[in-house]
């Protein structure tokens, strides 16, 4: 939480900001995310990460990324359940899990990150459906860019989770934008 406090002291937060400040900061974060997505396929970092993913032996990088997101979501959901079971009086209420009152803090942020991960999976799955429908009509260069943007989705979603749980709101917002704009670029 020291990093969150340090960033807030420097003004790198949306927490407690008025509407005008949020608009200015949000637009700046959005512009950076769009710029990163635009330049990503041309970067040597994207080549290196794609190479690492390809070394796993996966047949499809976009589907590997989907599997990564699912595994991350499962671990988040289980982490939330275990945290609630071990810290909340009465444990985890599986009869009404959405109705449980959770105080502020890392447990609540883990729950929210898990819920957002599930929501973002729907967007990424929609993108995979669009790409799948295009099939062999896409060229080699387009397929390589799709694979690189998929890797960026994986990176963004992974960092998003960490930023959410650590309460790093500006980084979380940037990573959310990076993931969403990468999906837009793929489609």
Automatic annotation (TrEMBL):
Stored SUPFAM superfamilies: MAPEG domain-like (SSF161084)
Query: Where is this chain's protein located in or outside the cell?
Result: Membrane
The UniProt transmembrane annotation reads 20-41, 61-85
Question: What are its GO cellular component terms?
Answer: membrane
**Which Pfam families does this chain map to?**
MAPEG
Q: What Gene3D superfamilies does its record include?
A: Membrane associated eicosanoid/glutathione metabolism-like domain
Q: Which domain of life is it from?
A: Eukaryota
Q: Which UniProt keywords apply?
A: Membrane, Transmembrane, Transmembrane helix
The protein, known as: Uncharacterized protein
